[in-house]
Each structure stands twice: as C-alpha cells, then as structure tokens.
Amino acid sequence: MNHHLLLVLHLLGAAIWVGGHIVLAVGILPNVLKKKDPQILLDFERKYEKIGMPALLILVTTGIAMAYRYNMGFSTWFSFSNAIETVISLKLILLIITVLFALSANFFVLPNLSSKKLPMMAFHIVSVTLIGIVMLVLGSFVRFGGINL
C-alpha cells in the first residue's frame, strides 16, 4: 500500500476518532452532566463504538505501517533518536495512555455507571479527547520533518 493511501486512511480514522470524541465531550457530555443521566452517554457510546473502534484500529494499523515506511521499526521506537521518531514515540506513549483510559473506563466506570460516577467518566472522556487532539497535532509535525526535543 502506498504512503499516500495510508495517510488518507489514517486521516479518515483520525477524523472519526477525534471528531467523535469532540462531539462527545462538547455536545453530549454537558447535557449528561446537567441531567445527571448516564443513559444519554451510554446511548451515544453504543452508537459511536460501531465506527469509533474500527477508526481506532485503522489509526493504529496505518500509523505503524507509516512508521515502518519512515524506517522507524519497533527497535527504534522510544529512542527519540531523530525528529520523526520523536513524533512516533510521543504518539505511541499517548496511545498507551489512551488504552489505559479505555481499560479503566470499561472495567471500573462503565459497568455500573450511575450519576455518582459521571464526573469520573467525564474525566475519562475529556482526557481521551484532549489526547486525541494532541496526537493529531503531533502527526501534523511529520509534514515539517518532526519534532526535536
């Protein structure tokens, strides 16, 4: 698969993943918190998950494929050895944090979501949304040669 197609798929995945989380954080969450109604959140999550999780899978798959196209294989990850690899490593760290938030939400918050747990779920939602935005911005730096720390 050529780099341009990988990039387009990656950007579509990012649009769905980050866009969906922005809609959730800005459009749905305030109403959920105001009404203290977790069902509104659960209804959105059930619908969004059908496109959000495949989008995340596309993001991870295309991101790894593009990293390899930049000759940044597994053995170079987290070495911060050059500007492109720094972007890749920072995005991987943020991906790991996102996965930890997902695990926390799925095992500790969502199983018995109640109005009392809504602030904790809101923290998860806002955090994952902000992480997604930061990852999007980091990805844009690849176009300019990466980031030197």
Description:
With 149 residues, the protein is an all-alpha fold. The chain contains four helices and no strands. The protein has helices spanning 3-35, 38-69, 83-109, 118-140. The chain starts with a helix and ends in a 9-residue tail after the last helix. The relative contact order is 0.15. The model has no long low-confidence stretch (mean pLDDT 95).
Question: What are the segments in which pLDDT stays under 50 over at least 5 consecutive residues?
Answer: none
Order of helices and strands: HHHH
Task: Please count the beta strands (DSSP E, at least 2 residues each).
Answer: 0
**Helix fraction by DSSP (H/I, runs of at least 4):** over 70%
Topology:
Elements (H helix, E strand, L loop, with lengths): L2 H33 L2 H32 L13 H27 L8 H23 L9
Helix pairs in contact: 1-2, 1-4, 3-4
Structural key phrases:
149 residues, 4 helices, 77% helix, 0% strand, mainly alpha
What's a concise summary of this model?
The chain is built from four helices and no strands.
